[in-house]
């Protein structure tokens, strides 16, 4: 591999060395090792951008403790360090140590790949999903989604990536996302989906009904927003056109969905990967999705100002009615594109 090579795909993630959710370094090591393994296995060169937001004092930087690709690996790894003085510009800096979507914007603005996948550091790709990535058949007027399968964190105890994938297949906690073929059927036991032809007829029927019941909301409800922060691909020009993720001084809940809504406003089509082309998410504590008690959820969100879902929908429907194509909430320099940040690179892209 040459010292500099253009990648078709850039993968953008963000994190900090604060042990969020427990086993954070181990989860991130597993993610990076898995990506190196699959890039080599499928002979597919990828640029991975890790935006290290607001590094904790007294802790090593992530480039010092995470796996480093060798010159023969098919992965370029770039660490972009956003310092504490940037983080402290935000009112909620004490209650929210990492502004996830703003950090991902930093990576989006600096990515060199034609297409950009925004995901997270506790994700593993199935081989079927990775094989879908290497087809290089993405379209610039489309955005791409994959289902997320939450799996038991016991896979962290396994030594090899293949062992981890095999473990994940048998330790699925739940599946998040829409069926790529049956978009209107939700909440049914998986047994029903075995009756393919009958389910397609039922799906068509419910889609017909939904158009009348949901009215203006129908187009938005067709989008696969569930866990979309863990897997959304767009051409870089499309990310730029929608101004990336909305940059708000808030917890990241629902901001990932707004990116899909913005793509919808621009007339982009949604493509959902099939039932096997999924990603595995290593289950962990401290995330809002892991809280099952309603009172605990309220206490969690009370500490972190966040968006109300119905406000997001209402604002988007208003934009649709007015014929607007983006939220126009970000400044022109979103992603701090005019700011220099320290960068550590392994395998130049």
Description:
The structure is a single chain. This protein is α/β, with parallel strands linked by helices and 349 residues long. It has a single domain, classed as Spore Coat Polysaccharide Biosynthesis Protein SpsA, Chain A, CATH 3.90.550. The protein is 32% helix and 17% strand. The chain contains 11 helices and 12 strands. An 8-stranded mixed β-sheet has the order 10-6-9-4-1-2-3-12. The protein is globular. The mean pLDDT is 88.
Summary?
The protein has eleven helices and twelve strands. The chain is an alpha/beta fold and 349 residues long.
Question: N- to C-terminal separation?
Answer: 10 Å
Percent strand equals 15-25%
CATH architecture: Alpha-Beta Complex
Overall pLDDT level:
88
* Spatial arrangement of strands, main beta sheet: 10-6-9-4-1-2-3-12
Number of helices: 11
How many β-strand stretches? 12
User: Which topology does CATH recognise?
Assistant: Spore Coat Polysaccharide Biosynthesis Protein SpsA, Chain A
Give the low-pLDDT segments.
none
Write down the Rg: 20 Å
CATH superfamily: Spore Coat Polysaccharide Biosynthesis Protein SpsA, Chain A
> What sequence of helices (H) and strands (E) makes up the elements?
EHEEHHEEHEEHEHHEHHEEHHE
The share of residues in helices is: 25-40%
Main beta sheet: strand number and arrangement? 8 strands, mixed
What's the number of domains?
Answer: 1
Q: What is the overall shape?
A: globular
Secondary structural class: alpha/beta
CATH class placement? Alpha Beta
């Amino acid at each position: 591999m040459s010292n500099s090579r253009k990648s078709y795909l850039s993968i953008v993630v963000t994190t900090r060395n604060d042990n969020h959710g427990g086993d954070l370094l181990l989860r991130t090591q597993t993610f990076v090792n898995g990506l190196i393994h699959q890039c080599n296995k499928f002979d597919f060169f990828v640029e991975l951008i890790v935006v290290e937001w607001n590094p904790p004092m007294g802790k090593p930087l992530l480039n010092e403790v995470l796996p480093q690709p060798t010159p023969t690996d098919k992965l370029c790894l770039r660490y972009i360090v956003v310092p504490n003085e940037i983080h402290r510009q935000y009112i909620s800096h004490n209650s929210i140590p990492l502004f996830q979507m703003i950090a991902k914007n930093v990576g989006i603005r600096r990515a060199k790949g034609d297409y950009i996948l925004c995901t997270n550091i506790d994700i593993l790709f199935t081989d079927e999903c990775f094989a879908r990535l290497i087809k290089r058949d993405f379209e610039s007027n489309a955005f791409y989604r994959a289902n997320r399968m939450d799996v038991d964190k016991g896979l962290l105890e396994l030594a090899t990536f293949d062992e981890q994938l095999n473990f994940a297949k048998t330790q699925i906690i739940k599946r998040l996302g829409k069926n790529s073929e049956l978009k209107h059927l939700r909440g049914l036991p998986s047994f029903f989906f075995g009756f393919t032809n009958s389910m397609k007829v039922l799906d068509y029927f419910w889609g017909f009904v939904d158009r009348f019941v949901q009215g203006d909301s129908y187009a938005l409800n067709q989008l696969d927003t569930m866990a979309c922060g863990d897997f959304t691909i767009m051409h870089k020009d499309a990310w730029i056109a929608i101004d990336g993720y909305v940059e708000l001084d808030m917890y990241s809940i629902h901001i990932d969905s707004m990116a899909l809504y913005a793509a919808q406003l621009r007339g982009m089509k949604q493509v959902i990967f099939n039932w096997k082309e999924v990603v595995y998410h290593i289950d962990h504590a401290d995330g809002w999705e892991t809280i099952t008690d309603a009172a605990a959820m309220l206490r969690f969100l009370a500490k972190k100002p966040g968006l109300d879902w119905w406000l997001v929908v209402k604002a988007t429907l208003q934009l649709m009615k007015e014929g607007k194509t983006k939220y126009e909430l970000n400044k022109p320099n979103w992603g701090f594109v005019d700011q220099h940040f320290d960068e550590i690179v392994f395998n130049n892209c």
